[in-house]
Structure formats: C-alpha cells, structure tokens
From TrEMBL, chain A:
Protein name as it appears in the record: ABC transporter permease
Tagged with keyword Transmembrane: yes
Keywords linked to the UniProt accession: Membrane, Transmembrane, Transmembrane helix
Lineage: Bacteria, Bacillati, Bacillota, Bacilli, Bacillales
Organism of origin: Cytobacillus solani
Transmembrane spans: 20-36, 67-85, 106-132, 164-184, 191-211, 231-252
Domain of life: Bacteria
Automatic annotation (TrEMBL), chain B:
Organism expressing this protein natively: Cytobacillus solani
Protein name per the record: ABC transporter permease
Transmembrane regions: 20-38, 65-83, 104-135, 155-180, 187-212, 238-260
Higher taxonomy: Bacteria, Bacillati, Bacillota, Bacilli, Bacillales
Keyword Transmembrane carried by entry: yes
Highest taxon listed in the record's lineage: Bacteria
Keywords, alphabetical: Membrane, Transmembrane, Transmembrane helix
Zinc among keywords: no
C-alpha cells in the first residue's frame, strides 16, 4: 500500500497543474488580504447579521468565503478530475493496473494521496492566514466567535480555528466522492468536471440544507462550532458522501479492468 | 466540397454523446430556473422585476443561466470540437483527403455558431412553453432597467435584442475558448484557463467598481469600462443593451469576437500542424 501511495504522490507532484494549484493556494490568501484589508479597508466580518472585528486570532477563519467558492466549484473538481479520470481516459493507467495489486487498493491509495495533498493545501492556507493575521492585524489576547459567550484565549482560539478548517476539509472532500463516481462511470475529464459542478449546483437548487453546506460553508462551520446548527443535516451530508465513495469503490472493482 | 465539409462537421458534432447531453441539460436548466422562479414569485409582487410570468420567464431564466450553464456548454462544445480533434491528432485523418485547413476552420466555425444558435433557440422555446403552462399569465410585465410595465410587443422587441447580445456574448466566449483549446495541451488546462478567465473577469469588475466608486453604477463611464468584461456583458450588459441604454456592449463584443476569432484562425491554420 505504501508503494502505491508513494507512486501516486510522485505522479501527482510531477504534474504542472498540481504546482499551479499550490501556487494559487499560496497566492489567494495574500490577494484576499491585499484587496479586502489593504485596498478596501474591511476590518470586520459578519456571521448571521452579527459584526465581529478582525484581529490576529480570528483572521484565519474569517477569509474563507471566497476561498470556499473558488476551491469547491473550480479548483477541486479540476484537481480531482484530472488526477482520477485523465489517466484512465488516456490509457496511461493500464501501466499501473498491470502490477499485481488489489484493485481496491489502487483507488484507496489515490484517495489517500488526494486527501493528503488537499489537506496540505488547506494547511498552507491556514498558515499563511495565521501569518498575515499575526503580522498585520491588531493583536489581542482574547477574542470571541459566533454564539460563543466567553472570550477565547490564543490556545482555545487556535483549537477553534483548527476545528473550523477541519469542517471545511470534510465538506470539500465530498467533491472527491462525486468526482470518483463520475470518473469511473464516464471516464472523461470534462464530464467528471462539469458533472460534479452540475450535481452540486443542481443539489443546491433542490435542497436548502445542501445549499447552505456548499455555498455558505464558513457560516455552517461557525454555526456548528457555535452550537446552533442542525447537526442532522451535516450527518446526512457525510453519510451520502461516504455512500458515494462506497459506490465508486464498488464500480472501480467491477469496471476498471475494462475501461482503463 | 465546402457544403459536404459543413455536413460532415455537423454530423461529427451531433455524433458526440456529450453534445447531446448538453442539449438535454438545457431542459434541466429550465426546470431549475422554474423552481427558482416559483420560489422568488412567492415573495415578489407582479410589478417586481424578479417576478417571473409567462411574458418574461424566457428573459429571467436566460439571465440566470447565461453566465453559468451556457458558458459551461460553450466550453464543452469548444473542447470537443477543437481541443480533442486538434490536439489528439484526429484531424490529421481529415487532411489525408486534401481538404484545405482554412476551409475546415471556416466550416467548423459556421457549424459551431449554428449549434450555439440552436442551443439558445431551444432554450427560448422550452422556457416559453414552460412559462405558458406553469407560470401566471399576464398581459404586461416589467423589464430589466426599464421603469413600469410593458405589453407583449415591447417584450418581444426587448427579447430579440436581449437574445441577440446573449448569443453574441456566447460566440465571443466561444472564440476565446477556441484559442485556449488549440493552444493548451490538456483538457484540464483548457478548463482551468477558461474558468481562470471567468474569475479574472469578476476581479476586473470588482476593480472597476472600486476604481469608479464615485460614479453611479449605470454611468456611461462605468458601463464603458465594464463593457470589456464578458462576464459583465452576460450578467447585466445584455439587459442594458436590450433596454436601449447603450450600444457599447454590442461594439465591445464584436471587437473582442473578431480579435479572438482571428487569433484562433491563425493558430488553427498553422502549417506546422500538418508537418
């Protein structure tokens, strides 16, 4: 399994697109800071109509709305679909399938690598935002968050921030399940890419909770951490994602030999 | 010869299943618009612009979907017609028959333009039918960027102008994607750059609104700067043009279309491809 993971890592990081996505990941928080804070002077953020002022402790969680939109609807579908379907479509994956590995291990290896790569991207964003917050934002010893009455010290605030990023990660990884399913079902990059976006946008039209989870992910994360969110919605969302992962794995086992 | 080239391109286009899926997607897009319209109708008065009726649903649904679904369809069409055939080398088979690469490009462009027209016409017909069957029937309706209520003749005039600029904006977007499709080596590259282009447009619009924040949003100066942005033309420009506010969006679209079409023509007819 370790060899599969290392091989996947090697292939993913040898692609130019991965490097470009990492570059965007690094530049995006800086651009957001430059435009929103430096040029337009925005020194507050709003959660459900309540204004909070920005400071070094809360800055990393307050700049995620644009990031969420860009990554959930553009970058992640592109990144995942290129990694999953382009190799199958071009026939290059045959070389991997020739090796004596269990088929399911190959897909699980891919998932682990994609998840770890995206985790490192998100960590990058957090660290850059953390750095920007500490270098340029007003320094405070305590800060408050949505629906949390007591003021949090730097350690508790950091734990809050990390939990916030974990929720974002969980929501964003749902894209991987859809892309996996579409890549195996249709194998074309363009179908996996547009199909996933169509499914997400279509789902948003049909279900309001899904619309909130996908479109207002930061607000949902604030509400979950503030204890005001209906957790059942998130639970259903995670269960559906897991089911799609399961279906994708089943289809992979059945079909990969004939479609690659 | 040229006629058979066009028929061949047309057949090739509709032979691809994804293009058929795109056409079926228009039906789904219309139903999603309808769902949104029924929801917003609950909170809106009949005189509000967001209120969708049998008279204006074809405009509100296109306004909602032009920037998203239609642009996605154009990207798909261009990737399949230009990127896949050009980059995967399928076109080399065509040139074994002594067909002029220039004529092939013209035929491809004509077929693409015709198919985009077909797509937008199908959207018009479906949205009109859906509106007639499901939405409330009215004798007058409000129109974007115009005061008061308008009768059917005004709505028809507005619709023709609106659909014309929407069509032109799609052709322009298509010409940009054509260049990217021919130049990029991978599908992911074309997709990434196409969406990057849309994203840059959003940044440009935000920058213009910041730069000209002292001007009213419908000031000719603001509209002139925004006319360079295809996304602005699709989001608001087509309605400004249809309302008779300004023609700057028409000129900007024609100029951008001609520039990118020329670039695409030069890239496509590059002799190196045949060597």
């Amino acid at each position: 399994m370790l060899r599969i993971i290392l091989s996947e890592f090697g292939r993913i990081f040898s692609k130019k697109s991965t490097k470009i996505i990492f570059l965007i990941t690094g530049l995006f928080p800086v651009l957001i800071f430059y435009f929103f804070q430096q040029r337009w002077g925005i020194d507050y953020y709003i959660v459900n109509g309540v204004n909070y002022s920005l400071n070094n402790l809360n800055y990393p969680v307050t700049q995620m709305l644009e990031y969420n939109f860009l990554f959930l609807f553009i970058i992640l579908p592109l990144f995942f679909s290129e990694s999953l379907s382009s190799e199958i479509d071009s026939g290059g994956y045959k070389m991997i399938l020739l090796r004596p590995f269990k088929k399911w291990k190959l897909l699980v290896g891919k998932w682990i690598v994609l998840m770890l790569t995206y985790f490192s991207m998100l960590l990058c964003v957090f660290l850059i935002n953390f750095l920007i917050g500490n270098l340029f934002l007003p320094h405070v010893k305590f800060t408050s968050y949505y629906n949390i009455n007591e003021n949090l010290n730097p350690f508790d605030s950091m734990v809050y921030n990390l939990k916030f990023y974990l929720i974002i990660l969980i929501v964003h990884l749902a894209v991987l399940s859809i892309i996996s399913f579409l890549s195996i079902a249709f194998k074309k990059t363009i179908i996996a890419f547009f199909g996933s976006i169509t499914l997400m946008i279509g789902g948003m039209y049909i279900s309001l909770p899904l619309q909130n989870i996908l479109f207002n992910t930061p607000d949902v994360a604030y509400s979950i951490l503030g204890g005001t969110y209906e957790l059942l919605n998130m639970l259903i969302f995670i269960l559906v994602s897991f089911s799609i992962f399961g279906v994708a794995l089943w289809m992979w086992n059945k079909r990969i030999g004939s479609i690659a | 010869m040229f006629k058979s080239l066009i028929i061949y391109e047309f057949e090739k286009f509709w032979f691809k299943k994804i293009n058929i899926v795109c056409l079926i997607a228009i039906l789904i897009v219309n139903f999603l618009s309808l769902k949104f319209a029924l929801q917003s109708n609950k909170a809106a008065e009949m005189t509000d612009i967001v209120f969708s009726s049998s008279l204006n649903f074809h405009i509100t649904s296109l306004q909602e979907m032009l920037l998203t679904a239609f642009n996605a369809i154009i990207i798909t069409f261009c990737i399949l017609s230009f990127h896949e055939e050009y980059r995967k080398g399928n076109l080399r088979m065509t040139f074994m028959r002594g067909i002029s690469i220039r004529k092939l490009y013209i035929a491809k462009s004509l077929v693409m333009n015709l198919n985009i027209l077909l797509t937008i016409l199908i959207h018009l017909i479906i949205s009109l039918l859906i509106a007639l069957i499901i939405l409330p029937k009215t004798s007058s309706s409000p129109l974007y960027f115009k005061e008061g209520l308008y009768t059917i003749s005004d709505v028809v005039f507005f619709s023709i102008r609106y659909y014309f600029l929407a069509y032109l904006s799609l052709l322009t977007f298509g010409s940009i994607i054509e260049v990217l499709s021919i130049k990029c080596k991978s599908v992911a590259g074309v997709l990434g750059l196409s969406l990057g282009f849309v994203f840059l447009n959003f940044i440009y619009i935000s920058y213009v609104s910041f730069l000209l924040k002292d001007y009213p949003i419908s000031d000719p100066m603001v509209l002139k700067y925004n006319s360079i942005s295809l996304v602005f033309v699709q989001a608001k420009g087509a309605a400004y043009f249809a309302a008779g506010f300004t023609d700057v969006f028409l000129y900007s679209m024609i100029i951008i279309y001609l520039i990118f079409k020329s670039l695409s023509y030069l890239a496509f007819t590059n002799k190196n491809y045949l060597e």
